[in-house]
Design brief:
Residues 164-419 form the Transposase IS204/IS1001/IS1096/IS1165 DDE domain. By secondary structure, this protein is α/β, with parallel strands linked by helices. It has helices at 11-14, 108-119, 125-132, 136-152, 188-191, 208-217, 220-224, 235-244, 254-277, 286-289, 303-313, 319-336, 340-355, 363-374, 376-380, 391-406, 413-424, 428-431, and strands at 22-29, 34-40, 54-69, 72-85, 91-93, 163-170, 180-186, 198-204, 228-231, 249-252. The protein has 18 helices and ten strands. The longest helix is centred in the middle third of the chain and has 24 residues, at 254-277.
């Protein structure tokens, strides 16, 4: 291994001040903070009005928060010269826009560090503000503005998208205003096995019109490139996709199909529980105790759970629960079939069975059958379109729930959408290429 080549210690290089056109000329370091005294490298002594020569009048101090070193907030004290034109008397300051834009409180290197901390390391704005020694509002405004400029507003962000997922998301738990947003996910990396899904956009509201307007705002060439739209059972999303993406295939993903069957199973269990005992489920009731076991696939049941199911269905009063449970297990087994054509055949058989021949008492199964029959083409399309599950959409929803919890909630929807895009928009590899 070749020996490293050492150079003379240089605080300007170590703190990346040369990228800001600054030179470090002093330092003041304590256990809690570091202050670096700097001067600009460019003289800038020519008048902007008449082009005459300027002479130094005095100096002013510009303070900038910089990226922290050694877990200490680092502040730059830049001695900025003020010049006065000897021809016209105009006064101006030495140019320091390479270090930070006018009136900015954070250096460009500090802003770059803060954006990577938010996107790559998932730090909260409060943590970033503490490490920069600035207020929360200063850090939040600067980081979100830089995130919009560098990442969110990138015109190439929507390139290469051919499979999308759409779902609803609860963004705040309040009684005022719309609590829902529509999330659009890029599932193309999943379908092509090239990487994880990413959040494309979030739109306030949850309706056909919201999704339709978002699609209509995209360029026609982009819409023509969409091949598959994965969605839940909400008919508004399907109608919007059919109108704006007529050539795309709508797929009702397995997650929501199984959820519909599971909801039917829960509903019939509660109804039978009330009819047979006269009260809601209690800890000692066998039907209530088995509520989680009923949602477990038969191939995953333990011996103890299998025995519990046998004892439960030995009661003739629970026949409706047993029939609904069997349908639920048949749907799960169809999706777990290794051969997709076999899985499609099994699910088609379930849909046909539910569409006709059910006893009149099974109202929950009849309702499930009507839904599956109406969306049969979308449900069965999953088996011919691998990688179009809306599961990654639900996974991103979970990450957004975690984000909202770590931030202790969001009152501003615009900030929430920006934070969600930075959190789950697939920008980590942009800021940290080694994460590919």
């Amino acid at each position: 291994m070749a020996k490293p080549t050492f150079s003379t210690p240089d605080l300007t290089t170590f703190c990346r001040l040369n990228d800001l056109d600054l030179t470090c000329i002093g330092q003041h370091i304590t256990a809690h903070k570091a202050v670096l005294k700097c001067r600009p490298n460019t003289t800038d002594n020519w008048c902007r009005r008449c082009g005459g020569h300027g002479e130094i009048r005095d100096t002013v101090l510009r303070r900038l928060a910089h990226e922290p070193f050694g877990h200490r907030p680092t502040t730059l004290h830049i001695r900025v010269r003020r010049y006065k034109c000897i021809e016209c008397g105009h006064v101006w300051r030495q140019d320091t826009t390479t270090a930070a834009p006018a009136r900015a409180k954070i250096s460009r290197s500090g802003l770059d560090w803060a954006l990577r901390a938010l996107v790559v390391d998932h730090d909260t704005v409060s943590v970033i503000a503490d490490k920069l020694a600035v207020s929360w509002h200063t850090a939040n405004s600067a980081v979100l503005a830089e995130g919009h400029r560098l990442l969110i507003n990138d015109p190439n962000r929507f390139d290469g998208v051919s499979v999308i997922g759409v779902d609803e998301h609860v963004w705040r738990h309040t009684r005022r205003g719309d609590k829902y947003v529509t999330v659009i996910i890029d599932l193309t990396p999943i379908s092509q096995a090239t990487g994880p899904a990413r959040l494309l956009d979030m739109v306030p509201g949850r309706s056909k019109q919201v999704f339709k307007q978002w699609l209509a705002a995209r360029p026609k060439a982009w819409r023509d490139g969409i091949e598959v739209v994965a969605m839940d059972g909400f008919s508004g999303f399907k109608t919007a996709a059919a109108e704006e993406l007529p050539d795309a295939v709508e797929v009702m993903d397995p997650f929501h199909v199984v959820k519909l069957a599971g909801d039917a199973l829960d509903e019939v269990r509660r109804r039978v529980q009330q009819e047979t005992t006269g009260h809601r489920g209690r800890a000692a009731d066998p039907l209530y105790r088995a509520r989680r076991t009923l949602h477990t696939g038969t191939s995953l049941l333990t011996t103890k759970q299998q025995a519990r199911i046998v004892r439960l269905f030995a009661d003739d009063n629970l026949t409706e629960v047993e029939v609904t449970w069997s349908v639920y297990q048949d749907i799960v087994a169809a999706y777990r079939a290794e051969d997709r054509s076999e899985g499609k055949r099994l699910l088609q058989k379930v849909i046909d069975t539910l569409a006709s021949g059910l006893p009149p008492g099974l109202i929950e199964l009849k309702r499930l059958g009507r839904t599956l029959k109406r969306r049969a083409a979308d449900v069965l399309a999953f088996f011919t379109r691998p990688g179009t599950s809306n599961g990654p959409t639900e996974a991103i929803n979970g990450r957004l729930e975690h984000l909202r919890g770590s931030a202790l909630g969001f009152r501003n929807l615009t900030h929430y959408i920006a934070r969600c895009l930075l959190e789950s928009g697939g920008f980590r590899t942009v800021l940290h290429p080694q994460l590919r």
